[in-house]
Design a protein that fits this description.
The structure holds two protein chains of two kinds.
Chain A lengths: L19 E5 H11 L4 E4 L6 H9 L1 H7 L2 E4 L3 H7 L2 H4 L4 E7 L1 H16 L5 E7 L13 H7 L2 E3 L5 H18 L3 E6 H4 L2 E5 L10 H6 L13 H23 L4 E3 L6 E6 L3 H10 L13 E4 L1 E3 L3 H8 L4 E5 L6 H13 L4 E3 L12 H15 L14 H5 L1 H9 L14 H14 L4 E3 L17 E2 L21 E5 H18 L5 E6 L27 H7 L4 E5 L5 H13 L6 E6 L3 H17 L4 E8 L9 H4 L6 E4 L10 E4 L8 H8 L6 E8 L3 H24 L8
Parallel strand pairs in A: 2-3, 2-4, 4-5, 5-7, 6-7, 10-11, 10-13, 13-14, 15-16, 15-17, 17-18, 18-20, 19-20
Antiparallel strand pairs in A: 1-8, 6-12, 9-11, 21-24, 22-23
Chain B lengths: L20 E8 L4 H14 L3 E5 L10 E9 L20 E4 L2 H9 L9 E5 L6 H5 L8 H11 L2 E5 L1 H7 L4 H12 L6 H9 L5 H16 L26 H10 L5 H14 L2 H20 L8 H14 L4 H8 L2 H11 L6 E8 L3 H7 L2 H9 L1 H11 L3 E4 L3 H11 L2 H4 L3 H23 L1 H9 L8 H21 L5 H14 L4 H21 L1
The chains are: A alpha/beta, B alpha/beta.
Chain lengths: 719, 527
């Protein structure tokens, strides 16, 4: 079960002719796929396209009605390989993933797919995780499109335009026998907007038809001599077909006046911000009525040379607006113009930054520089453009800059991974620091305060593999951390299998929280929930044993910090040979709370006896040294300033968002911190026995308390 | 609604529609920003406007700082406006911050500017990890944010929206929506907001109550809750004191200067509460002696800062954290009452608490008579054997009879305390500290005060306590290196502050290295 439910929203996928869809970009994309008559869909979750996978999972009914097959892929390579269904059969298929990381993983399959070519339309929805808010390395998917020759669509951030490009993209894929990538940036995926819908289309050739009528064609398989022919086919048949289709269907747009001394060529995705920049310069209104001619590339690969030439002819200069590096488009445009001997000057990365987000502010500067140089008269009366420099330079704001604490992402309240790292921290204090290889997932937050554990991350599921070199006898062992998501993505073979085969001496911690939590809590093979459409509950422990691991420890409650610490210590010091594997399992608290909270509320309301737990800190026992926080970082464990003139430092305090995971108490106990933590158990709807017992006990306790308090000298204030 | 109009050669797009209204919501992941964003979008659409929102969900957002962004504008003759996906510095109409320092972060992004921006922010704090983990007080000073808001926001609506929401049984998004409505920056009637909440389904009534309260608070702010500390409840009372302590309070009045009265009263209360009236008298004896030294070295002109500082830290030193004190505090009725209040215990509910204790042999030996414990300590094999029996986590159900009795009995052992091993250690440490401080006073008044304040470094239990002590020792040793310099007090302060900043003590070691470098230099120059 995913973190966010789209049960209500998926009903919008049923909208038909004459209706208007309002909602998130990801949902609009899904609707576009259904309107295009896809036969199968798949992919791998990851921001910004996690919600696409969640929507598809929640839309099983809608998909069933249309006969669409939905597969959760093991990883992006598996998703890409699935597209082979469209090689021989006229089946339309689509897969989605986070890029460039997902495209990296998928590249082998994609290169094979693109070489042999496709019969049915194939589309890869690329969540381009670039710029502010991205969680990965800053690269462009553009290079992948060029190297394997797959067409790259980069529609304007507008639902109408995106959906049209999806529909046209499938046609393009079919007429040019080439897979198509649809690139959507982070904010576009989560952009709220609207478009006029059409009826969904049932595929007229289905997966079942394909299975019942198998076909093969040796010419489509990547093996010499066919592979050589594929290349020629790409150059001489598929590319011209694509260029013709894109031009005839006007997938790229000419916006604004046709003629002018200057013009702007831009990626579709840059359109909204370019218009805003023009508006700041007084060169457009808010509705996109621009004074400067624009050539909007909704298709960024291939570049349609004839359109570029047509746009540039008669202009003194153009500005190429292309986000990210290197400047592939600027080079392509320059080449197109040189070959035709069109002497329009090409500006781009000389006036705009090489890397980073092209925000309206960045574009404002770039476009102003460009117009200033190429046609300054246009800037006319130069209205004041927004500018925060004065504010940012103000001494008071400078002081603020130095003082505002960073707020990086961290583990949630009650996260089962916290005690694992608390235990690692304690082991570190005992045995000294170790080389720790981190992996992708929530557990990567261990690299940040307060834990500061982890030296490298080499890609999803590759934490264990990235310790491969450290396989020598030394005083210390390497530690690799990997999540259950990474484990099933590839870590079982690349990490554990590799370590078993090479008799690696290191320690491997597999963090099993029952979901791929970092991407939004999707189910995986080892999820403990039962899922009507998938086979879950496949044990990680059995899998690693099956692959040959001998030293395997399962910890079924990560919150048992003492056990966690002892197990880690044993793994680091044992004489046993081969990889030492610890599977640390507890349910993702975010998902658990979503599951349990309504049940508890209902039980209490229904009069059932329910014990609700919460942790607290005795403020008079706490000395304010915050050692507990340095082993936790839990959002619900905070500090508060007491109204006591004798105290300098704030004491620890737990707020009511505490979910009583137990980490505080366990850590205080295991690390011998202090006795100020307590767990409060509140019995809702107590039984008569509960009440009787409490009454008797409290009567005795009350007597004792009063007795001692009577003897205490009275200052009239509590200490 | 825009005060400057973009001069276009094109026909104007229409009045009041030159640029969209832009709203940035700065929040921490998973704290209502998404709900508020959806409401604002629905609100705009319900009024026939085109509204667009963007956000960055995913793992990058988990509990970290994040931003949601909305633009809205009426369509014009069938033409939809082209809306931006990110806020532009200097061009944001409304910034809504769900937490106070996040408002500060928005200022640093340049999206709060005096020409344009209405800032709606909750004044409550949710501390960042780096603020919380410092061994001392790492919390950012709110005034820095307030000052910056003062010079950047066009209008500001700031109150504790979190507390207001909690009071009305809802969450902060409803309060922020109410404040947005109350601010009047959007040209929509109040009813239209309520309609949107009503359409939401869950917790509607509480949300509306919260919305109304926040709306009202924005329109007619209640007197700003002063951030300054209330007069301490622990000040020296003017009348007679409670039973048994009257003579002590009278002594305090007559023997100590007025500047030290309040703090010494609080200190006296603490040590008497810790032990007994006799111990309070010991406190006053010590304090009187320190005061005499203070007076002798010109304390009068310094408003007896040495005495005032001593009154505070001596009380803390004397009321050290031992097993007896913990057991005593845990078994008091005031403690039970505080827990009940904190968790909001209802009439028909039953409360139990569990304590997490981890005593070591050190704690046990600390309670033994001094001489006996010292003899025992010499037999390290026996101590190890005993530690193996004692040293483990023990959980006690506080409000069950047997565990309560155990704690109660330990809490009652104070009669033995002043003869105990731990007490002897504490007294020894205390005396050395006071001697150092008084000794410094003769040469450098301020240095004496700084040395008193170093006591702040000693706190916590077991390992943390040991680490605090070692830091204290390091700082005292380093102070000795510079005690003859004119700026010795300054260095003492710097040493203490670097010691309190990081737990590992790296920063302290750095400061000590600096001191050593010039201290050695100074010696070689002097020779």
């Amino acid at each position: 079960m995913a973190e966010r439910s789209f049960a209500r929203e998926v009903q919008d996928l049923r909208l038909g002719d004459g209706d208007t869809f309002r909602g998130e970009g990801i949902l609009a994309i899904t609707k576009g796929l259904l309107q295009s008559g896809v036969s199968y869909v798949g992919g791998y979750q990851g921001s910004p396209i996690s919600h696409l996978m969640d929507v598809l999972a929640d839309a099983q009914d809608v998909l069933d009605e249309l006969g669409v097959v939905f597969q959760s892929s093991a990883n992006e390579a598996a998703a890409a390989a699935m597209l082979s269904a469209s090689v021989m059969y006229p089946l339309r298929g689509a897969v989605a993933w986070k890029s460039t990381v997902g495209t990296n993983v998928a590249s082998d399959a994609l290169a094979n797919l693109a070489s042999g070519g496709v019969t049915g339309g194939t589309m890869i929805i690329i969540g381009e995780d670039y710029g502010e808010g991205s969680s990965i390395m800053q690269e462009r998917t553009h290079a992948f499109a060029m190297k394997s020759q797959m067409w790259l669509l980069d529609p304007r951030p507008d639902h109408e335009c995106i959906v049209r490009l999806i529909e046209k993209g499938f046609e393009l894929s079919e007429v040019s026998n080439t897979p198509v990538m649809l690139e959507v940036r982070v904010r576009t995926c989560h952009m709220h907007g609207s478009f006029a819908t059409k009826d969904n289309v049932r595929p007229n050739f289905t997966i079942k038809d394909a299975l019942n009528n198998p076909r093969r064609d040796l010419g489509r398989i990547v093996l010499p001599p066919a592979a050589y022919e594929h290349e020629q086919e790409k150059i001489h048949k598929r590319l011209p077909a694509a260029v013709e289709f894109i031009h005839n269907n006007r997938l790229n747009e000419f916006i604004g006046p046709r003629d002018g001394k200057v013009g702007i060529v831009l990626q579709g995705g840059m359109y909204n911000n370019v218009i805003r920049a023009l508006q700041y310069l007084g060169l457009s209104d808010a509705y996109g009525n621009t004074q400067i001619p624009l050539y909007v590339m909704n298709v960024t690969y291939p570049v349609i040379d004839s359109e570029v030439a047509e746009f540039c002819r008669g202009k003194d200069a153009i500005l190429m607006v292309e986000e990210g590096q290197p400047e592939y488009l600027e080079q392509a445009v320059s080449t197109a113009l040189r070959r035709r001997d069109i002497n329009t000057r090409v500006h781009g990365k000389d006036m705009l930054p090489m890397g980073g987000d092209y925000t309206a502010q960045v574009l404002l500067e770039g476009v102003r520089t460009f117009v200033d140089k190429a046609d300054p008269r246009l800037l006319g009366n130069r209205p004041p453009a927004p500018n925060a420099d004065d504010v940012l330079g103000h001494p008071v704001v400078q002081k603020l800059k130095a003082a505002v604490p960073a707020r990086p992402p961290g583990l949630c309240t009650g996260c089962p991974e916290r005690p694992i790292f608390a235990a690692m921290k304690m082991v570190e204090e005992e045995l000294g620091p170790h080389h720790v290889a981190a992996d992708i997932g929530c557990h990567l937050f261990s690299i940040l305060p307060p834990f500061n554990i982890g030296a490298t991350t080499m890609g999803f599921g590759l934490g264990p593999a990235s310790t491969a070199a450290f396989n020598v006898k030394a005083d210390k062992r390497s530690i690799a951390v990997m999540g259950d998501g990474g484990f099933w993505h590839n870590g079982l073979t690349s990490g554990i299998g590799n370590a078993v085969y090479n008799k690696h001496d290191g320690v491997f911690v597999i963090v099993d929280n029952f979901y791929t939590s970092a991407t939004g809590g999707q189910d995986i093979l080892s999820s403990r929930a039962s899922n009507a459409n998938r086979q879950t509950n496949n044990s990680i422990v059995q899998a690693v044993k099956g692959i040959g691991a001998q030293w395997v420890r399962q910890i079924d409650r990560t919150y048992d910090v003492g056990k966690m610490r002892a197990t880690l210590k044993e793994a680091l010091t044992t004489e046993a040979e081969g990889p030492k594997i610890i599977v640390a399992s507890s349910e993702c608290m975010l998902n658990k709370q979503r599951r349990v909270k309504p049940l508890t509320a209902r039980a209490i309301k229904g009069g059932e006896r329910v014990v609700k737990e919460r942790f607290g800190v005795d403020e008079d026992v706490c000395t304010g040294d915050h050692a507990c926080i340095r082993l936790s970082g839990c959002p619900s464990l905070s500090v508060k300033q007491l109204d006591d003139p004798l105290r300098d430092d704030p004491v620890a305090a737990i707020d009511d968002s505490c979910v009583a995971c137990g980490n505080c108490g366990e850590v205080a106990e295991a690390a011998v911190l202090c006795p100020s933590f307590y767990r409060a158990d509140v019995v809702h709807n107590p039984t008569r026995w509960d009440r009787f017992k409490a009454k008797v006990t409290m009567a005795v306790i009350g007597f004792l308390q009063r007795r001692r308090e009577r003897r205490r000298p009275a200052f009239g204030i509590a200490a | 609604m825009r005060d400057e109009t973009v001069k276009l050669a094109l026909p104007a797009a229409g009045p009041a529609t030159e640029r969209p209204i832009s709203i940035a919501i700065v929040a921490m992941g998973g704290q209502g920003g998404g709900v508020l964003t959806d409401w604002i979008v629905e609100l705009g659409e319900s009024q026939g406007w085109v509204a667009q929102s963007t956000s960055v969900p995913g793992v990058a957002q988990r509990t970290g700082a994040t931003i949601y962004y909305v633009e809205m504008m009426p369509p014009l003759g069938g033409q939809k406006p082209i809306l931006s996906l990110m806020p532009t510095p200097g061009d944001v109409d409304v910034v809504v911050a769900s937490e106070f320092v996040e408002a500060g972060r928005a200022i640093l992004r340049g999206i709060v500017t005096p020409e344009r921006t209405t800032l709606i922010a909750s004044s409550h704090r949710s501390f960042a990890v780096t603020e919380k983990m410092a061994p001392g007080n790492g919390v950012m000073d709110k005034a820095i944010v307030s000052d910056a808001i003062g010079v950047t926001a066009k209008k500001e609506y700031i109150f504790d929206m979190n507390a207001l929401a909690l009071r009305h049984g809802s969450v902060i998004s409803a309060a922020m929506f109410g404040a947005l409505a109350g601010s009047g920056v959007l040209p929509f009637p109040r009813e239209s907001y309520i309609e949107i909440i009503r359409g939401g389904g869950k917790g509607v009534e509480a949300s509306i109550r919260t919305f109304e309260a926040a709306f009202e608070e924005t329109r007619n702010p209640t007197a700003p809750a002063s951030e300054t500390r209330k007069p301490a409840a622990t000040g020296l009372p003017s009348g007679t004191a409670g039973r048994g302590v009257e003579p002590l309070v009278n002594r305090l009045r007559s023997e100590l200067p007025a500047a030290a009265h309040d703090i010494a009263y609080a200190g006296l209360a603490k040590v008497v509460d810790f032990q007994d009236v006799g111990y309070g008298a010991a406190y006053l004896d010590l304090l009187a002696r320190l005061h005499a030294a203070d007076r002798q070295h010109g304390g009068e002109t310094k408003n007896f800062l040495f005495t005032v500082t001593a009154a505070k830290y001596l009380a803390n030193a004397m009321a050290y954290d031992d097993v007896i004190r913990v057991a005593d505090l845990k078994t008091r009725s005031t403690r039970r009452a505080r827990v009940e209040k904190e968790i909001g215990l209802a009439q028909d509910q039953v409360l139990q608490t569990t304590e997490f204790m981890h005593p070591r042999i050190e704690e046990l030996m600390g309670m033994l008579p001094d001489g006996f414990a010292r003899r025992l300590e010499k037999r390290s094999g026996l101590v190890r054997w005993l530690d193996a029996r004692v040293n483990k986590g023990r959980r006690l159900r506080t409000y069950s009879l047997v565990p309560f009795l155990m704690l109660y009995v330990v809490g009652g052992l104070r009669a033995l305390r002043r003869r105990s091993y731990r007490h002897a250690i504490e007294v020894d440490h205390r005396d050395r500290w006071l001697t150092a401080a008084t000794g410094a006073l003769a040469k450098n008044y301020q240095l004496g005060v700084e040395i008193l304040q170093c006591r702040r470094l000693v706190k916590g239990y077991s390992d943390t306590h040991a680490r605090g002590l070692s830091k204290f020792d390091k700082v005292m040793a380093a102070i000795a290196l510079v005690e003859d310099r004119n700026d010795a007090a300054d260095w003492a302060r710097r040493l203490r502050e670097s010691a309190i900043k990081d737990a590992a003590g790296m920063e302290l070691d750095g400061t000590i290295e600096t001191i050593k470098s010039f201290a050695v230099e100074g010696i070689s120059q002097g020779s």
